[in-house]
Amino acid sequence: PMNSETCSGDAAAPRLGHGEVAVLLSGGLDSAILTARLLEQGERVHPIYIRCGLRWEQAEQAAIRRYLRALDSPNLAELTRFELPLSDLYGNHWSVTGDSVPHAASPDEAVFLPGRNALLVIKAIVWCQLRNIGRLALAPLGTSPFADASLDYLQQLGRVLSSGGSAHVAIECPFARFDKPAVMRLGAALPLEHTFSCIDPIRRLHCGRCNKCHERRQAFEAVGRQDPTRYALAAGSA
Asked: How far is residue 121's CA from residue 127's CA, in Å, rounded to a whole number?
């Protein structure tokens, strides 16, 4: 069976083995597909959503609830939600204020959120330790431009948090050798219309003009699938 360290960038399904696993669920395509794949493999899945006070989270949470209802699996545990406010730390960052949100032509590096991955993982791992859940699955891709989304970084972080007498929680990144089209092919039959990727929503709809909306359009196009997303604005709108 494949694990998080050996999966490659083709469309073969990563396998993690059976048991209980927590998943950090953001509402986006990758973590939504990972959640469904784990359920299909017979795992008891505990989805975790952590709200940080960022401007898209209200729409994101509504999408997560719709998506989990659509999966309708007996192996899916109730969504666990936590608060981890970052607005006091981020101050006037675009993710809080909505000013100068990275647009479609922005490089992917423009959407970096400092320290967020580490903070999310810390809270999720402590939750797992308190409940004797020995695995935490994340959905970063091998094509991510961010060092704090790399397999090496995340697994080192997991080892640190599982040391000093704390219960061991293994961090698994099943898509760490995958690119976006490979993951999208794994989700071909899933209700991805209920996922949410936008960082500048308009009336809880994808804006259609931000960096993440552009990435979303490209993801569906790459696998020849009709994009089911409702966008507030057409591609290229100011």
From this structure: 10
* Dihedrals phi, psi of 135, to nearest 5 degrees: -140, 140
224: left (phi over 0), alpha (psi -120 to 50) or beta: left
Question: What is the distance of C-alpha 142 from the center of its chain?
Answer: 14
Check the CA dihedral 27-77-14-225 and report its sign: negative
Within 10 angstroms of residue 136's Cβ, the number of other Cβ atoms is 25
Instruction: Yes or no: say if 28 and 196 are a contact pair by the CB < 8 Å rule.
Output: yes
Q: What Rg, from alpha-carbon coordinates, does the chain have?
A: 17
Alpha-carbon separation of residue 49 from 6, 27, 65, 109 (angstroms): 27, 8, 11, 23
Token reading at 188: 């071909």
* pLDDT, tens digit, 9 for 90 and up, residues 153-195: 998 999 999 888 888 999 999 999 999 999 999 999 999 999 9
pLDDT at 13 over 60: no
| pLDDT tens column, 84-141 | 999 999 999 999 999 999 999 999 999 999 999 999 999 999 999 999 999 999 999 9
Smallest Cα–Cα separation from 190: which of 6, 35, 5?
Answer: 35
> How far apart (Å, rounded) are the C-alpha atoms in residues 229 and 192?
9
